[in-house]
Amino acid sequence: MNVPSNLKYTKEHEWIRVEGGIAYVGITDYAQSELGEIVFVEVETIDETLSAGDVFGTVEAVKTVSDLYLPVDAKILEFNEELESAPELVNDDAFGKGWMVKIEVLDATQLDTLLSATDYEALIGA
Fold this sequence. Notes:
The protein is of the alpha+beta class. The protein contains 4 helices and 9 strands; from the N terminus they run βββαβββββααβα. The chain is globular and about 35 Å long.
């Protein structure tokens, strides 16, 4: 199971990569493998300001639909539009081309409450 050490993680299996005041959010390699083939990603919260733990969208796999939870307080800036025509990018490259939203982090101190790669590996039993 791939768990990059430069990311932070949530117990709900989202990851966040911070680049200055901007961050990218997606689901982990573990989450996509548990869901199976991703067929649709929906995000209707663009330009909205949400709190940590709020649902920012959904991911649909062949057998289930799962909510996507925001790791930190943020404004949703952008949806990865490549996922509209190629949702399988989440399966193929969960931490790269499979990112879901670009956000503006509103409270950087919340990043300290997220899981490290080591903590996340312990959570999933990797």
